[in-house]
């Protein structure tokens, strides 16, 4: 009971340590699992979602996927459970027969977070392979003169399983003349040897039948057998001898098929059949099968299949030289393959943005890249680069992963689309390279206000125009795109002669056409000053204004009006003017038909006009004098300082003075109806005056008293 409790406690502690180890590895972006080989497709490997702390909806929304090394996808992610499952049946002996611990690696990529997690899965061995011999029937030729205790090498059995499931022991049965001895090789492997336990007599028995059995350590154990036929030969007292115990050859991986790699040589001091040496390939590493050929007579080793450094960088052959009497010698041949830069870097875009906003901050991840080169040394060192002049840069992300990030803010109005070429070059001579093109579209942000084609607009409009007539068209453009570049026009608020500006003109919102809503009258409105606003469709909207000036052009649409004498109404005939003016007979040409008051008014007007003309001449003289003084001062000092602007009277001031003193005179024969009116409308409506005659003249129509 106590022992069971202790075992339960140990299992609990082991489970706790496993959970803590998985949590620690998940925090550092790495997960480790193990699964037996030969499991069916879809078998459970590990709970990735739980170990990484990811929720199941997030797995679907963030674009999580598994990327395996190599060309075969051995694992997949179950979308509903978040479990890592097998995507293929995995054979450990096929994947990594030559290594003790078989580990497959893959990456979990979370595209939404631009994160990569490494996953290592150890493939556990099961006893699914029995030991086997390369040849099931062997023949061993032994001289009858061979002394007891002599040893003869037997072929090794091969078991691709590992650990206890691999080859563990040998057994020999069938004849009392022979026994079995097992020697340990340099690598710890077992090498069976046939030991002559009892002297042979060819005349007694020319052949001996034996069975060699190889046994592994599985439960239950698996076995493999080979039949050995021992042939007794006549005496042969000299064995062949190789010129070297070990041959070492270095060849590049691109050596042509059919090339001679090395020639081995063995000699035998005997004569006749016992002196003839025959070469054979006794043993070779698993990766060497079918690649090399040994000529049994000459000892020439040739290449029959192309070498690939990435598939195998070293091969070991064990050769045997046997004479006609069955004596032999062994030699080892090590063929080392040197790497040649024959693999270009493999550049894979694992995740990429197709479009991004132009206001994205610098450092935004655009794409995630994976780079791999199967060569070794400098030939496998990869350098990545981008085109010059693009607003992006590369930064190392994780291991052989790189991120393409923005180096500065983007401007869609300058460049709306990018085709960024990423190049990966190795360190070979000459270097090999590969490339990938990232297509990125820049999304618009409303960062440009509309701009008018002109700084200000003006137009001349004839009065009495038709209502609804086109006056002019303003145009503004927006450098943005889509809705942000859609421009609409409207008038700024204002009033003209107490009425709203919108009652005079209107602007078409889509085209910017400005229309007159009423017929203009030059005598009422001579010009219009207004502002047109252009506003884009962004949120918030951006806008700009432009000044528009409309000049009303006068037309001859008013007839002259007689101020004096006033026209008599048709109904009146007494005190009104009848169209006949009486004048004295003695009146001279140019004289007015007026009374004494009218003459005084004419004199007053003439006096005022003379005074006004004299004032103008004086003002111009002062102005010329001051201008002359300014020119002299400017020549001396180069500029006037401290002189107020109000000390100078310009042309506008003279015009204002002239308008303030313009006047209008109306004279009649009746002094009570004579008028003298000062007005700002004109300065030229005075009548020429003429002094009255010396004596009164008779009126027209009166009889001569004489």
Description:
The protein has 706 residues and is mainly beta. Among the domains are: 28-124, Immunoglobulin-like (Sandwich), CATH 2.60.40.60; 137-233, Immunoglobulin-like (Sandwich); 242-338, Cadherins (Immunoglobulin-like, Sandwich); 346-443, Cadherins (Immunoglobulin-like); 451-553, Immunoglobulin-like. The chain has 6 helices and 46 strands. A 4-stranded mixed β-sheet has the order 1-7-6-3. The chain is rod-shaped. The chain starts with a helix and ends in a 28-residue tail after the last strand. Mean pLDDT is 81; it is low at 1-28 and 638-706.
Keywords:
706 residues; mainly beta; Immunoglobulin-like; four-stranded mixed beta sheet; 13% helix; 37% strand; glycoprotein; membrane; Cadherin-like_sf; PCDGA protein
* CATH C-level category of the domain at 451-553: Mainly Beta
Oligomer: single chain
Which structural class do the helices and strands define?
mainly beta
- The number of helical runs is 6
Query: Any idea what the CATH architecture of the domain at 451-553 is?
Result: Sandwich
How many DSSP E strands? Answer: 46
At the fold tier of CATH, the topology name of the domain at 451-553 is Immunoglobulin-like
Task: Give the strand order of the largest sheet, numbering strands 1, 2, ... along the chain.
Answer: 1-7-6-3
Quote the average pLDDT: 81
CATH homologous superfamily placement of the domain at 451-553 = Cadherins
Stretches where pLDDT falls below 50 for ≥5 residues? 1-28, 638-706
For the largest beta-sheet, the strand count, sense and barrel status come to: 4 strands, mixed
Helix content class = 10-25%
Computed CA radius of gyration, to the nearest angstrom:
59 Å
Distance between the termini: 179 Å
Q: Per the principal axes of the C-alpha atoms, what is the gross shape?
A: rod-shaped
Strand content bin:
35-45%
GO molecular function: calcium ion binding
Domain Cadherin: 74-133, 134-242, 243-347, 348-452, 453-562
Membrane topology: Single-pass membrane protein
Keywords: Calcium, Cell adhesion, Glycoprotein, Membrane, Repeat, Signal, Transmembrane, Transmembrane helix
């Amino acid at each position: 009971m106590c022992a069971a409790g202790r075992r339960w406690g140990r299992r609990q502690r082991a489970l706790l340590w496993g959970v803590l180890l998985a949590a620690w590895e998940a925090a550092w972006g790495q997960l480790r699992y193990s699964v037996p080989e030969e499991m069916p497709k879809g078998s459970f490997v590990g709970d990735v979602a739980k170990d990484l702390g990811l929720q199941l909806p997030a797995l679907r929304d963030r674009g999580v996927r598994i990327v395996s090394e190599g060309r075969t996808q051995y694992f997949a992610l179950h979308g509903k459970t978040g479990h890592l499952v097998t995507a293929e049946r995995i054979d450990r002996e096929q994947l990594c027969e030559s290594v003790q611990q078989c580990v497959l690696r893959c990456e979990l990529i979370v595209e939404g977070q631009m994160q990569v997690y490494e996953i290592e899965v150890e493939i556990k061995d099961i006893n699914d392979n029995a030991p086997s011999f390369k040849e099931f029937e062997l023949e061993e030729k032994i001289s009858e003169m061979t002394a007891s205790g002599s040893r003869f090498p037997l072929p090794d059995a091969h078991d691709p399983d590992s650990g206890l499931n691999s080859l563990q022991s040998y057994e020999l049965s069938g004849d009392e003349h022979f026994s079995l001895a097992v020697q340990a090789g340099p690598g710890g492997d077992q090498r069976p040897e046939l030991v002559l336990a009892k002297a042979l007599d060819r005349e007694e028995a020319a052949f001996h039948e034996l069975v060699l059995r190889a046994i592994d350590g599985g439960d239950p154990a698996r076995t493999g057998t080979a039949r050995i036929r021992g042939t007794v030969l006549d005496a042969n007292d000299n064995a062949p001898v190789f010129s070297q115990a070990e041959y070492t050859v270095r060849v590049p991986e691109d050596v042509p098929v059919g090339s001679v790699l090395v020639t081995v040589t063995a000699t035998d001091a005997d004569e006749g059949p016992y002196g003839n040496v025959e070469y054979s390939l006794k043993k070779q590493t698993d990766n060497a099968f079918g690649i090399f050929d040994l000529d049994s007579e000459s000892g020439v080793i040739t290449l029959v299949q192309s070498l690939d450094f990435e598939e195998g960088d070293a091969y070991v052959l064990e050769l045997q030289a046997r004479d006609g009497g069955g004596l032999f010698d062994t030699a080892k041949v090590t063929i080392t393959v040197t790497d040649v830069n024959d693999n270009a870097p493999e550049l894979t875009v694992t995740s990429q943005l197709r479009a991004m906003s132009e206001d994205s901050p610098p450092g935004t991840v655009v794409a995630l890249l994976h780079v791999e080169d199967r060569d070794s040394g400098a030939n496998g060192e990869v350098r990545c680069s981008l085109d010059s002049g693009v607003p992006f840069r590369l930064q190392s992300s994780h291991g052989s992963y790189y991120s393409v990030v923005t180096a500065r803010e983007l401007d869609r109005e300058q460049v709306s689309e990018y085709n960024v070429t990423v190049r990966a070059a190795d360190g070979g001579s000459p270097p090999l390279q590969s490339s990938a093109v990232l297509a990125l579209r820049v999304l618009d942000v409303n960062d440009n206000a509309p701009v008018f084609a002109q700084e200000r607009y003006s137009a001349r409009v004839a009065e009495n125009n038709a209502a609804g007539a086109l006056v002019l068209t303003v145009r503004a453009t927006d450098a943005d795109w889509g809705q942000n570049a859609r421009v609409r026009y409207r008038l700024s608020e204002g009033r003209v002669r107490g009425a709203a500006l919108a009652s005079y003109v209107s602007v078409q919102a889509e085209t910017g056409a400005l229309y007159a809503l009423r017929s203009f009258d030059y005598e009422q409105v001579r010009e219009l000053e207004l502002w047109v606003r252009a506003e884009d469709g962004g949120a918030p909207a951006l806008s700009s204004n432009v000044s528009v000036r409309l000049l009303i052009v006068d037309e001859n649409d008013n007839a002259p009006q007689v101020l004096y004498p006033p026209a008599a109404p048709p109904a009146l005939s007494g005190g009104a003017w009848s169209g006949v003016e009486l004048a004295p007979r003695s009146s001279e040409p140019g004289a007015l038909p007026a009374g004494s008051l009218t003459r005084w008014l004419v004199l007053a007007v003439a006096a005022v006009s003379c005074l006004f003309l004299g004032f103008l001449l004086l003002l111009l003289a002062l102005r010329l004098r001051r201008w002359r003084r300014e020119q002299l001062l400017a020549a001396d000092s180069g500029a006037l300082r401290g002189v107020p602007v109000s000390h100078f009277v310009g042309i506008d001031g003279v015009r204002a003075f002239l308008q303030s003193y313009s006047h209008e005179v109306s004279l009649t024969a009746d002094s009570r109806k004579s008028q003298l009116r000062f007005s700002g409308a004109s300065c030229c409506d005075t009548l020429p005056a003429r002094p009255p005659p010396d004596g009164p003249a008779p009126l027209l129509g009166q009889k001569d008293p004489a």
